[in-house]
Design a protein that fits this description.
The complex is a heterodimer of chains A (253) and B (292). With 253 residues, chain A is of the alpha/beta class. Chain A is 36% helix and 25% strand. In chain A, strand 9 and strand 10 form a beta hairpin. Classes of the chains: A alpha/beta (253), B mainly alpha (292). At the A-B interface, helix 2, strand 6, helix 3 and helix 6 of A face helix 7 and helix 8 of B.
Chain lengths: 253, 292
């Protein structure tokens, strides 16, 4: 069994200063599937996502306790190089954050970061991941234009291509379509569905319908606690916990 | 017929509104007029002396008594000293500010201390820097020269440049840095490959602001740069500067020389104006790739 793209959390607690944001989360993210984290706003979904690649290190008052294992290794181990951990993960944020450079340079950024200099290889990488993100046809004739000129839907797909170019094992998506129009959203969702064959995807969303469309597994987070976790067919259709049921039927949001 | 209280209040509000509008408009107009007045006065007093020879010739014999010549020495000297000082200040401040914003946490003691130091430096009058520079010169047995003037002027520009750089680099959105870290970039790579690119137009503007300020500073170069009627070609020779040229010429009892003082002032003002316009133009042009 290949130990690739496996993420698990054991008794993870996250504090922002004195505030406890995540309480005792234990979770095993299944590989090569889409795990969707749902829950009302402010319950810690984004914080949970940021734990995986240690982005919380950059946040001032954040403190993380507990074990987070990626491919069997504890990511907080002092011997671990955080940039290597982050390389295994691609992050897609809510608001597309393109880098202040051309479209080509955006996608090539990751590979260049990790030492790739050969122009031909980079050309290949750029094309490959732009195709994978479903953006190639639209930008192939203007690869050297500033990325900021793209529409927001295109920018999000560019961020997807850029994240994929690092060749991660895991994709972390934080409400990736909430800033997009319906057509672009459908586009991004379609790409994610194709990608799950090769990547472990963790997606945070507050759109239940999106969860229904995309999820293989669902985790319900409420007020910082993991209430329920299981296959989508179970959690979304016949949830066991009353709070899950209340959220899914729209009583709490 | 008496007006109801509601109507009185409404009328008074309208009147106040109009009154304040007029007051503010008047103040804006006054400020603009002051600027215009200064510019026109300088131009008027300098008109007879505004000849091409002012900027193409150095002072000839008896220049300060009214004879032929120009202020090419001061023009070139000012450019030499200011460009050198700005470069020095830039080399020193840019890494410091990048360090402040990328490597240190926002509220650490070190970052607060550094920012406090910069704030205090900002308030120090340039003549104090001049005195300090003079002291350094005496200690190292340097004569008044281009080098001594450059170092002192660099000290004056330091707080200006660092504040302008700090303001610009601080504005980089955290999400942009997060996105970069998420790809496995370390701090150095984030700082150089993303942050600097994002702030590049702001960097150019900051440098030009400091440059403009440095061109017009008299107090720091008063004791440290010396003065000469010739063009300076070596770092260890004294150098002429525009502010001092204005000072010396204004001191003269001869009206022709005084007119030249105003002409020098006009040239200095024009130079700084050109730099400001260049700063705006470049900032817009270079901002192509930036994230809005």
């Amino acid at each position: 069994m290949v130990d690739r793209g496996r993420v698990s959390l054991k008794n993870v607690n996250v504090f922002y200063g004195k505030n406890q944001v995540l309480k005792n989360i234990s979770l095993n993210i299944p590989e090569r599937s889409i795990t969707v984290i749902i829950g009302p706003s402010g319950c810690g979904k984004t914080t949970l996502l940021k734990c995986f690649n240690r982005l919380l290190d950059e946040v001032e008052a954040a403190r993380v306790e507990g074990e987070i294992l990626v491919d069997g290794k504890n990511i907080h181990d002092p011997e671990v190089d955080v940039t290597q951990i982050r390389k295994k993960m691609g992050l897609l944020s809510q608001k597309p954050q393109v880098l202040p450079m051309s479209i080509y340079d955006n996608v090539a950024f990751g590979p260049r970061l990790h030492g790739q200099r050969n122009r031909k290889s980079l050309d290949g990488v750029v094309e490959r991941y732009l195709r994978l993100a479903g953006l190639w046809e639209e930008v192939k004739d203007r690869l050297f234009e500033p990325a900021s000129r793209l529409s927001i839907g295109q920018q999000q797909r560019l961020c997807l291509a850029r994240g994929l170019a690092v060749e991660p094992e895991i994709l972390l998506c934080d409400e990736p379509t909430s800033a997009l129009d319906p057509k672009s959203s459908r586009n991004v969702e379609a790409q994610l569905l194709r990608l799950k064959e090769n990547y472990t995807i963790v997606l945070v969303t507050h759109i239940l319908r999106q969860a229904k469309r995309l999820a293989d597994y669902v985790a319900f987070l409420y007020l910082g606690e993991l209430i329920e976790f299981g296959p989508a067919s179970e959690v979304l259709v016949s949830p066991q916990d009353p709070r899950t049921r209340a959220y899914i039927t729209g009583e709490i949001s | 017929m008496r007006l109801s209280t509601a109507e009185t209040r409404l009328r008074r509000r309208k009147w106040l509104d109009r009154a304040f509008y007029r007051l503010m408009l008047a103040s804006a107009v006054i400020v603009a007029l002051i600027l215009l007045l200064i510019l026109l006065t300088i131009l008027r007093k300098s008109l007879p002396a505004l000849k091409l020879s002012m900027i193409t010739r150095t002072p000839g014999a008896g220049y300060y008594l009214g004879h032929e010549g120009g202020i090419l020495n001061a023009l070139v000297g000012s450019l030499e000293i200011t460009l050198g000082a700005t470069l020095l200040a830039f080399i020193l401040t840019l890494p410091a500010i990048i360090f402040l914003n990328t490597y240190l946490k926002k509220k650490s003691t070190l970052s607060e201390t550094i920012r406090l130091a910069l704030d205090i430096l900002w308030g120090i009058p340039s003549i104090v820097f001049g005195a300090f520079g003079f002291l350094l010169m005496l200690t190292f047995h340097l004569r008044a020269s281009l080098l001594a003037g450059m170092i002192t002027l660099a000290l004056v520009e330091l707080p200006i440049l660092s504040r302008a750089l700090d303001e610009t680099i601080r504005l980089v959105p955290a999400e942009l840095k997060e996105a970069t870290y998420s790809m496995g970039a370390n701090r150095w790579q984030t700082a150089t490959r993303v942050v600097l690119r994002q702030v590049f137009p702001g960097l150019v503007t900051a440098v030009l602001i400091a440059l403009g300020r440095g061109l017009g500073d008299a107090a720091s170069v008063l004791f440290t740069a010396g003065y000469t009627d010739r063009l300076t070609t070596s770092l260890l020779q004294p150098v002429a500067t525009l502010p001092l040229a204005i000072f010396f010429q204004l001191n003269s009892p001869f009206p022709e020389v005084q007119q030249r003082a105003y002409a020098s002032a006009a040239i200095l003002t024009l130079l700084i104006l050109a730099i400001s316009l260049a700063a705006r133009f470049l900032s817009r042009k270079l901002g192509r790739h930036r994230i809005k």
